[in-house]
């Protein structure tokens, strides 16, 4: 859930994005610690997409989703989702 702290995670995690407004004209980007790691256009007739990433339990990370229109203007930017932030290390800054 957006804004959550997922606690300690290891291996692959998956994010599912559902778009309900004009989904054939948008692009979604998954950002990890400030770096775009996935950039996908929603295919015609689809309303959701999945992103996957591998996490290291020794590292604190954050993820954010950015939804852009066809010319690159931001339609939505989510609050971060934190992973492994309770490991005692420093949390990466969003």
Could you explain how this protein is built, in words?
This protein has strands spanning 11-18, 27-32, 35-41, 48-55, 61-68, 74-77, 81-83. It is built from no helices and 7 strands. It has 94 residues and is mainly β. It has one domain: Sandwich (Immunoglobulin-like). Strands 2, 3, 5, 6 and 7 form a 5-stranded antiparallel sheet that branches. The chain has a two-stranded antiparallel sheet with strand order 1-4. Mean pLDDT is 82; it is low at 87-91. It starts with 10 loop residues before the first strand and ends in an 11-residue tail after the last strand.
Radius of gyration: 14 Å
Element-level helix/strand string? EEEEEEE
Number of helices: 0
Strand content: over 45%
Biggest sheet details: 5 strands, antiparallel
Under the CATH scheme, the architecture is Sandwich
Global shape: elongated
The number of distinct β-strands equals: 7
- Classified in CATH, the superfamily is Immunoglobulins
The end-to-end distance, rounded to whole angstroms, is: 16 Å
Number of domains: 1
Give the low-pLDDT segments.
87-91
Instruction: Write the CATH fold name.
Output: Immunoglobulin-like
CATH class label: Mainly Beta
């Amino acid at each position: 859930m957006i804004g959550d702290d997922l606690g300690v995670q290891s291996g692959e995690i998956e994010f599912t994005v559902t778009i309900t407004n004009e989904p054939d004209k948008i692009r979604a980007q998954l950002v990890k610690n400030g770096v775009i790691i996935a950039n996908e256009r929603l295919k015609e007739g689809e309303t959701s997409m999945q992103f996957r990433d591998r996490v290291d339990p020794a590292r604190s990370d954050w993820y954010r989703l950015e939804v852009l229109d066809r010319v690159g203007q931001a339609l939505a930017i989510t609050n971060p989702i934190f992973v492994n932030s309770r490991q005692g290390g420093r949390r990466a800054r969003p």
